[in-house]
Amino acid sequence: MTDLEAPATPVLVHADRGVGSLILNRPRAINALDIEMVRILSDALDAWEHDADIEMVLLEGAGERGLCAGGDIRVLREQIMTAGAFGAAEFFRAEYALNARIAEYPKPFVVLADGITMGGGIGLAGHAAFRVVTERSALAMPETRIGFTPDVGGTWLLARAPGRVGEYLALTGSTMADADAIYAGFADHLVPVERLDGFRDALETRADPTGPAELVLLFDETPETSGLETARPWIDAAFSADTVAEIITRLDARPEPDAAATADLLRTLSPVALTVTLAAVRSARELPNLRAALAQEYALVTWFALTQHDLLEGIRAQVIDKDRTPHWNPPTLDALPPGIAAEALAYEPAVPLWS
Fold first, then answer.
1. Could you tell me the CATH number of the domain that includes residue 333?
2. What are the counts of helices (DSSP H) followed by strands (DSSP E) for the chain?
3. Which of 119, 177, 285, 349 has the fewest CB atoms within 10 Å around its CB?
4. Element (DSSP H or E) covering residue 329
5. What is the mean pLDDT of the chain?
């Protein structure tokens, strides 16, 4: 989607009966996030924080396809090609500040992650106080598929998923259905699509009960057993390995067909992205808070943009030329320079995130 096709108002902002409503309004692009949208969202939250008439915030996406498909990676590629990491730094700094703002917002923050919610969409939905999914939700952090690494606080969420589910989701970029998202800690409640209008109305009327924590219980359903939970034995056994190469070896030794398919997938992805992502998720387990995880991710994003070939190549192959045949550099895990993950984690951007 080009800028010329974008609607005049990319985020609809209004308040009614105590609810501040934010609607991402680029439905043809599955509400892909750009810096204008980030600024509109941030300005609204600033205005509502001390507004006594606003009791809670509701964020959702226009259209039926999804809340947000992520950041506009075509624009990201153009920015890196023309101005290096510095071209994208302004967007990432604003986006990560918004992610932290949502997590720390002093008023109840409700997000309807209906449909596709990926990448930057997880940054908006994953850190809210009340995270609602539907039966058509599809959540993922698919960054390794473009030679990149999870960001927007994704490593913070992934590091806190049960067992080794975080490593599995981070490396494979696999999509979570409603039950999976709740099991992995990316969502809290399942509200069927047919009940969303009733839930929205209840948030505005708030007769009894009055708060979203109680209201959502009137509309949610117990999800089915998560496929991730069922797969935990082979996921934990394989993804507890120290290295990506050992993870693949363990997957090859498993009897489950899904394990073999996962090994085949990992062999097609960027060795740099896989290795750095594994280290990033495990490092995030030791970090004290979301802001620390965002700072680590910001440094990694800058490192990828300034020093690595695979991010631009991954976007080219998946989005620009769509030939789905990226040429990674280096092409294999065996060819990776020793200590590349430590190098990436030690990288210090010229402009820090929190300054």
1. 3.90.226.10
2. 15, 9
3. 285
4. none
5. 94
Q: pTM of whole model > 0.85?
A: yes
Q: Are the beta carbons of 282 and 155 closer than 8 angstroms?
A: no
214, 140 contact by CB (below 8 A): no
Q: Domain range spanning residue 98?
A: 3-345
Q: Which residues are catalytic?
A: 71, 120, 143, 151
CA-CA distance, 328 to 81, in Å (whole number)?
A: 17
pLDDT for the residue numbered 234:
98
Using omega within 30 degrees of 0 as the cis cutoff, is the peptide bond preceding 209 cis?
yes
| Phi (first) and psi of residue 290, to 5 degrees | -60, -40
Q: Tokens 């979203």 map to which residue?
A: 212
Asked whether the predicted pLDDT for residue 1 surpasses 60, the reply is no
Specify the number of domains making up the chain: 1
Please name the residue ranges forming H helices in the chain: 35-49, 73-104, 120-125, 154-158, 165-172, 178-184, 196-205, 212-215, 227-239, 244-253, 257-268, 271-284, 290-307, 310-315, 340-345
In a domain, 177, yes or no: yes
Nearest CA-CA partner of 169 in 115, 116, 239 = 239
Tokens of 30: 């599955």
Give the single-character DSSP code of 324: -
Distance between CA 267 and CA 204 in Å, rounded? Answer: 50
pLDDT digits (tens, 9 = 90+) for 60-96: 999 999 999 998 888 888 888 887 667 778 899 999 9
Asked if the structure places residue 355 within a domain, the reply is no
